[in-house]
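Dig into these lines:

——
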Amino acid sequence: MYFSNPLFLLLIPLALVPFLFKTITRNFYSWNKLLPNDSSSNFLSILIKLFNSLIILFLIIYFSSPHQNQQEVTKVGVGSQIGLVLDRSASMDDPFSGSTTNDDNGIGETKSAAAARLISNFVESRKNDMIGVITFSNSAMFVLPLTQNKEAITGAVNATAGNALFQTNIGAGLTSVSELFAKVEDSGSRAVILLSDGAGRIDAPTQQKILDWFDRFDIGLYWIVLRQPGGISIFDKDFKHVDETQMPPQLELYEYFKTFRSPFQAYEAEDPESLEKAIKDINLKEKKQIFYKEIIPGKDFSKHFLIAAFFMTFLLFLLKLIEIKR
């Protein structure tokens, strides 16, 4: 048992005060030895003092606010530990190609706004997930560790729709997100959702580091490519690469991801509808049995001691009623 106001416990010796005083009576006799020995009255006298002591003790404990400490309980649920890696390069502020709204200016929903909206819906639909957020442009930015706080997660996701920079450093984003899992106990299912409209290139040392970390922490990877208008498809089997030239970054990255020993799945999205479809597919796949911890608040025992004090007071009142006046 824990106490919010433990200093009140220093008053516990006051509970002995009733035993320091003799029983007071209104009856007076010229010679007490004429009275017969009344063991019942003696017993009731001690009982009254005991009740008074308990009332004082219970009130002291009540004011000290006793409570049980919070407990961390391991439960079994459905979900995953998910790291969101969101592209914040300047091109994410462009609207989807061919997408329109009902606005007079005809400007479609931007990629960043659509991503924030759909990912927020994804987060709200998940019950037992732990989700962390990393953004990247010219470098990675830590936004949120793995947590079950949905308000914090959606707030972090919506904040990614702000101003952006021009570069796309995917390597920094993937390195940073893998660190989110380093100090968190494995719940049974781990995944990273990488959302980007560009590819960028990752140098060989960083590639090996990411490969090792994803394998060590058993992290699956989902890559959602927001395809540029007229851009190369990573699924285009007819694309012919000229040996003298460097492979397009998105194809180079796709080939690199396929070397992962942990699970990997790629998607392409050209509009909000296809992006929503990709996120829904991930939602269906990441419904595995996991073990997660839930914090149960400790019980407050203050009212129990207050009720006990009132009950003792009621018993004293009953004893007072059976007292013989003369």
